[in-house]
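Friendly challenge for the regulars: who can give me the structure tokens for this chain first? No prize, just bragging rights.
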Amino acid sequence: MEEKVQNAPNETNKIKPVSDTLLVLNIHTNAVEMVKGIDQDGNLQKIPPKEKRDNDQLIRVDKQGDLFSNFFSNFYRQLKNPSHFNFFKVSEYDAVNTAKDLQHYVDQASPEEKEKLKEYEILPKNTNPLKNQNTMENNTDNQEYRFQPEQIDWKTMEKFGLNREKLEKMNALDPLLRGFKTNNLIPITINLGTAVSKMDVRLSLQTADNGEVAVNLHGIRKEPNYNLKFLGHEFTDEDKKNLKESGNMGRVVDLVNPKTDEIIPSVISRDRLTNELVAYRAEYMKIPDEIKGIKLDDHQKQTLLEGKPLYLEGMTSKKGELFDATVQFNADKRYVEFIFNNNQNQQQTQQQSQSTLQNQSKGGEAPRVFRGKELDDAQYDKFKAGQTVYVDGLVDGKGKAYQGYITFNKETSKTDFSFTNPNKLKEKAQPSEEHKTQKAVNSDGKTNEATKNIKEPLESKQQQPANKKQEAQQKKPVRFKGRKM
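First reply, four minutes later:
Bragging rights claimed.
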């Protein structure tokens, strides 16, 4: 066997391709070491830099950009307490010398100079899920545009009764171009020639296999079918309960890409407007450093990265008021959301059409969404209690924005809409004291001390005798009839 190996120069003399490896800086100890891997408990395996070392002990990663990015994102996600470390990519042949030079720099550097190291630090998928955001004000505003308006198939949009101007008026174009679904339900019309169908949907854009940008329609359904597997995942009773109540499943699970069979750790949420199940890669999750004045520690961040709910106390609202609430990452919204009451969202599973949303709710419960506009928590609490609520941001069939007042009628389970505040109209319609007196005496048979003896009907607003005849009638003593004893 030894002779065969010696006689195979192509194998023994084969040049190994140059690979990259990782250096790690522990931000708490300032120790620079080389990365060996991650153990089964998620702990980082490290080795100190030494001149004589078998490079096979080091972790090796492909130098190609996309492959490395995917590798490091998965590596970072599996790591326990990743925020404790800063990682740097170097050539495996330069790893020892670079580690020593980096250690010398860290030992001598000032805090300001250490901050400059972040320019060389590598982050998963061009972002660090533990350091990406400073606050919880997370929306599509901070996302880069994924699509351009000219990429949209406007001919297809016209078949739905939509165009660029309408989408802009409905504030729907911007989230589409950023790669998100529209924030609200969009009324569309599908003309099939012999039949016309109208429905409410959320829209999104997606790049097809041929590179073209396709328009996706997300229609309203009664509820998800939890009995079927979702991308290879079979829902447990706890999964179903969480999705029904909070809209978030509450854990990271392995899903299967149906096209590539790739195993993708993901979180799952329910679209509360359409009841569609939505998955989001765990490696893309972004967790803020601070939520409404509360700085999150590593344990709290890790809880959110695992898709679990986190209860926070002592947060400060925009009005400066303290409040407590549960926060959780939502796969549909792609950011950490507030969950004040897990039971509040159950009514949304009943919506099927716009007429149902705006006029009547199933089971006598107040709908959470009115004409595509989702009520916030404060609005919904008043609305389901039967109080009148002001809503804006509504859009009519011509794409024109309007606003008005809605009131939920508990007896009929219908939503009443008015362009003017019905409470103020009622106040104006209330009769004055003078009219109340006139009605009470003339119609209800009641008496008023100043006019109780007047026989003829009172005039409008009359509360006193109007002439001498009425004065005489009012002064005339009342005679009592009875039997003589």
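The chain has five domains: 16-126, 140-219, 237-339, 353-427, 433-475. Confidence is low (pLDDT under 50) at residues 1-15, 126-142, 342-363. Your move, everyone else.
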